[in-house]
Design brief:
single chain; 167 residues; alpha/beta; Dihydrofolate Reductase, subunit A; 8-stranded mixed β-sheet; 21% helix; 34% strand; globular; binds NADP nicotinamide-adenine-dinucleotide phosphate
Amino acid sequence: MKMEKIIMAAKAKNNVIGKDNKLVWHLPADLKFFKQTTKGHTLIMGRKTFESLANPLPHRDSWVISRNENYHAEGITTFHSLESAIEAGEQKGLDTVFILGGGEIYRQSMELADKLIITEVHESFEGDTVFPKIDSEIWQEASRKEHQADERNKYDFAFVTYIRKKN
Ligand SMILES: NC(=O)c1ccc[n+]([C@@H]2O[C@H](COP(=O)([O-])OP(=O)(O)OC[C@H]3O[C@@H](n4cnc5c(N)ncnc54)[C@H](OP(=O)(O)O)[C@@H]3O)[C@@H](O)[C@H]2O)c1
């Protein structure tokens, strides 16, 4: 069976996803959704995103992409291109991989992803990293679940799934 390649991201109304190698909002409901969705799976991420996390995420395999041949850190597997990580997932017989960013990795993976799971935060933020344009010629919105801000989650947001349109 073909391995499904899923991009997962949280983006602001103005497409911002990060600033100074950090996330720019705190939405516990989104973190919970992220953990539930990715638990037990393999995650592919850029070296900068990996370094923005305190540690590799538990109960998941972290595959980190770096051009540096000597890059390594405890608890991760390093790859030197996005394609080689995808190939390794296919060879391992994984049914799914989650591509977790950041900006540079999202830009390169939009053309090879099958599905996007996007948390759309209904607020604009200042930042230095953005999510690429989701082209409606290519991507079909398949589901959307809106959430209102509450005492723990300061902003309105939606969990949205896009699937690649068939040619
Ligand atoms: N809101 C969200 O959902 C979300 C998710 C993830 C990240 N973020 C944010 O995004 C920001 C980080 O994104 P970013 O664009 O700066 O960095 P990034 O995409 O996380 O990592 C970039 C690094 O990945 C490696 N890389 C990229 N393409 C490669 C390729 N084709 N072959 C080999 N290595 C490659 C390089 O590492 P080397 O320099 O080691 O060669 C490059 O410097 C942070 O602010 C983070 O908080 C947000």
